[in-house]
Amino acid sequence: MFTIDYANIRAYTNIINGLILTYWHWGLGASWSEPIFSSKKKVLGAFAIYHRDIHSPTTNDLILIEQTADLASIAIEKNQADKALKASDERWKFALEGSGCGAWQYDFQGNVNLVSTTITNMLGIESDLIHEEFWPFNEWQQRLHPDSIDLTMEAFANVANGKSKDYQVEQQVRCEDGHYIWLLSRGRLISQTINGEPLLMVGITEDITERKQSELKLQLAASVFSHAREAIMITEVDGNIIEVNDTFTHITGYTREEAIGNTPRLLQSGKQSSDFYKAMWQSLLEKGYWHGEVWNRRKGGELYAEILTISAVKNPQGETNHYVALFTDITHIKEHQAQLEHIAHYDMLTNLPNRVLLADRLSQSVVQCERRHSSLAVVFLDLDGFKAVNDSHGHDIGDELLVALSHRMQAALREGDTLSRFGGDEFIAVLVDLEETEDCIPVLDRLLLAASEPVMINDIRLQVSASIGVTVYPQDSADASAENQG
Description:
alpha+beta; Beta-Lactamase; 4 domains
């Protein structure tokens, strides 16, 4: 009855010992037993028939015992397989629930869509089917956002029409409270007729709302980056440029490919000192940002002014990962400021210093005079006969005459001297660095000569003369003056 397999000798020994104890306990006279083997010849147990009297089995008894042991083997293996399947199913459910995914299946013939409670929970639906893992849900299409209907139906039709066995779509689905969430549904056709018609599709659904919101933020950030009116430059901590936008190229002339891998030194103009950049980096390291005006150089060599803001981008640990620089070209503003500055300090007709600039230069000259222990002369010059030119030839001719004479008189001065138009046909000259009072006489002579020489304008010969008055600082008192006629 026993066929001993030495690999299973311990199992046989246990069985035999168990039988002997049973005989002794119950006072049995005979036992017929057969080991129960698995399909892989592993011992699963033993089947036995007991007699109180000593009795030998017949051939039919032995056949019955063997057949019964075989049936027991099948039953035991099925039970083990069911337990393994249940354990596997529990592990699958645990993994699925842990991932936050819900399961579903669609019956094509019955047109029934069964979904797990995880999916109904995603939609805020309370299920009355407490003990059911899946329940019918045939209003799915009615819950789809209008923008998701066509994509969903196209993906479903591809499976239904046999074009594909796989189903995948991102869709917006309405929850019970009316708001929409993003779901990613993926499925596969697992059963079909012999004619290839679909029968059953199973799949999982995942809530991807947060991912879609993150993607939207990234798209918005990318759109802002690309379309910003400010130039944007992103660098690594060591200063290497890793990204620039289109406005950067428009302002600097450097393409994205030319800029990436370089450092911001690519744009330096040389107008800022090393101390300037040291202060900039100190602010970045201590405060995490810097803001100010910088002069840089375009690819073509042209200088330009910019308003620059640099910010440090830190990770959750507070360590700087990148620097982001935003700047705007303000060259036209600086030029306009220069123009306003010029208008505020220079005569618009002759381009000579006006009263404001004259007062400033005179103050500086007085300080310089005191420091050098020298003198300066203030010369008041009035054009004689200019009114007659205006009356006879008009203001346009008179203006041209004033411009021509101002150029001549400016040329008559020394380096460091100032000639200003005080108003109308009146001029003031400041002569600096005079060792002696008489040192101003040669300059005065040149001024008188420049003012009195004829000027040709539109084939018209014009000539005026000039009267001057001179006061010398510090020799003269505040109201002292002398006048010469030329």
